Amino acid sequence: MKSSSIAILLTFVVTTQLIAETTAPLGTYTAIERRHWSFQPRQAPAVPTFTTPADKAWVKNPIDAFVLARLKQEEMTPAPEADRRTLIRRASFALLGLPPTPEEIRAFENDKSPNAWEKVVERYLASPQYGERWAQHWLDVVRYSETDGFEYDTHRNGAWRFRDYVVRSLNEDKPYDRFVMEQLAGDEMDAKAEWLRVASGLQRMGPLRKNAGNQEVASSRSEVLTEMTNIVGAAFLGVTIGCARCHDHKFDAFRQSDYYRIQAYFAATHEKGISLASEAEQAAWKVKAKATEDEIKKIKAAMKGKDGDELAAIEKQLENATDKLPPPLPSLYSVENDFKRATPIHLLERGEYTRPKDKVGARPLGVLLPDGAPERETLPENPRTKLAEWVVAPENPLTARVMANRMWHWYFGRGIVATPNDFGKMGLRPTNPELLDWLANQFIAGGWKLKSMHRLLLNSSTWKQSYNSPAFEANMAKDPENKYLWHASRRRLEAEEMRDSMLAVAGRLNLKMGGPSIMVPVDKELTNLLYKPSQWAIAADKTEHDRRSVYLIAKRNLRLPMMDAFDAPDLQISCARRESSTHAPQALELTNGEFASAMADAFAARLTKEAGTDPKRIAERAWQLATGRSPNARELALAAQYLSGNRPLREFALAVLNLNSFAYVE
Predict the structure, then answer these.
(1) Which of 105, 358, 418, 464 has the lowest CB atom count within 10 Å?
(2) Rounded-to-integer distance, Cα 19 and Cα 356, Å
């Protein structure tokens, strides 16, 4: 351990012992603070009604009624329904993150039954790929990663199981309140249930600072508790309680004491790896590891009294010795309570754990409680369960609103509240508060089932609108951001959708589900930037390289160039919404990148196999696979002219993969 680390630890211990054991007073809140819209109980708004036949025909469910009422208030009219090809492509990407096949499109266009659309929706909701697509949304929110970040970016044994837990939970249509409970307190609910232990690994998803000397001290217990606390506000409550770590929140009614009272629910929570190996396997591993562990111990004696360059050299020896340990045995990446090691929770001066002030007990956010509501001075037997029960309580005004808004955002590209992680004063106000409350109420009344919400959204006229509208210019002048949803918005595919779609169109997509994450080939220039290039071990089975992007390793210090170019999140903090930037490296990646080049080769081979050598047949099949439609007359003529000149088919295939109609969805 570095001498500086010892000094910091001793300062913390001594200071903690000397502070007055007084309890921080409960926060007080003004009537104005309590009146903020998101802290108010949800209303039960009346569904608007209409009298004209056209309006009545457009309103397929209450979502449409609320949207149409707001459009009329703004003196705007909705767009007509999109054609079937557009609708099935839109639904396929929304629910599966993949393009529909030409055969699926043709079948839907030819299906004359009155429930043709409903059949498409149900088929997609029942698809295993639904869970993979929607898992990515949630993994963004909880900043899922399989590595620690910071300098060493150490890999986390078994962390990939959390991703599989999310996929599985969504495919099973697990009620959202149960989903939240399991992630906050799965280990408390049933310590013997493997999937629940995996779920509670959420508490360990944040970045973690380590060093070679003493990982627990260097990572700082305070930083670990901070990560556990902040994600509750960001992911589940949609508020920035993390801003109250160092002082009372500058804008919202969160006192610093509120922040640490939430943190107190995690005081006894510590990391826990649970081996899945048999006793014999564990014994064999220990035999293999003994010599290396003995070497590690010798190097750590050697560290005593050393500092500066001499200490740094010994730490390097320690890291090299650690690399000699045999590969870790399968385990669950989880947490558990250890009340004997519970951290005393105090307000911290400026958030510095070496400067503790008054102690606090556990209590939910005070602004949502009656005046004088007491705190728990002694932790309950299952503290995180108590926190989770408050988070998902139907009377909590935030949780259902936040998730209903997230779903709206993921469908329409903009939430009713356009700041999904910030329902506070600095966040944007809802464009249609009555609709938001109706959705949240419906979510709870429907048993917190996400698939029920999908059906509501997908069967609405609002979601089925065309991009084009007879009143396009007039409406655009009034609402250029489409806040009131007078037409469908175009959106570019997200990074994972782009990569997965190229694999699908090229005929290379491997739909194998679950299991350890995959490392695919990358330039050595990137791996050489890692603290240890050996961390990047490429999967030996090349078919694994063609797995869906959700199964690529989520490594904080190395993102694939294509994913980086198309705005994949950095995995450091909760990502409430993906940006959609436009810049030159995107074009370079799609025309010169190694992945795009490989997909062009595979796509060309598929076109040859399925369309032969006839230029028009090749062009027709290429457009159908990549865009879901046939080429128009001009596109067909240009493609035929190019292909008739004996030019490389791969260059044509690459050009098709660069079409806007491939990369964008209406």
Answers:
(1) 358
(2) 7
Token pair belonging to 65: 């009624």
Burial of 378 (0-12, 13-18, 19+ CB in 10 A): exposed
Strand partners, 547: 510
Q: Does residue 421 contact residue 382 with C-beta atoms inside 8 Å?
A: no
- What would the 3-class secondary structure string for 151-197 be? CCCCECCCCHHHHHHHHHHHHCCCCHHHHHHHHHHHHHHCCCCHHHH
Q: Distance between CA 232 and CA 384 in Å, rounded?
A: 11
Distance CA 271, CA 263 (A): 16
- Collapsed DSSP state (helix, strand, coil) of residue 483: coil
Among candidates 345, 363, 436, 364, which has minimal Cα distance to 37? 436
Helix H, strand E, coil C: the string for 105-135 is: HHHHHHCCCCCHHHHHHHHHHHCHHHHHHHH
d(CA 430, CA 424): 11
Threshold 0.90, pTM exceeds: yes
Instruction: Measure the CA–CA gap between 564 and 401, rounded to whole angstroms.
Output: 31
Residue with the two structure tokens 């992680």: 421
273 or 324: which leads in pLDDT: 273
- In Å, what is the CA distance from 274 to each residue of 79, 157, 158, 555? 55, 10, 9, 22
- Greater model confidence, 2 or 501: 501
Confidence (pLDDT) at 12: 46
8 A C-beta contact, residue 270 and residue 177: no
The kind and range of the H/E element at 356 are strand 356-359
Element (H, E) at 270: strand 269-275
Q: What is the DSSP letter of 589?
A: H
The H or E element spanning position 272 is strand 269-275
Instruction: Output the six-digit token pair for 215.
Output: 């990982």
- The CA radius of gyration of the chain, in Å to the nearest whole number, is 27
Query: Taking the alpha carbons of 470, 476, 478, 483 in that order, is the dihedral positive or negative?
Result: positive
Residues 6+ apart with CB under 8 A from 106: none
CA dihedral 552, 558, 559, 562 (to 10 degrees): -110
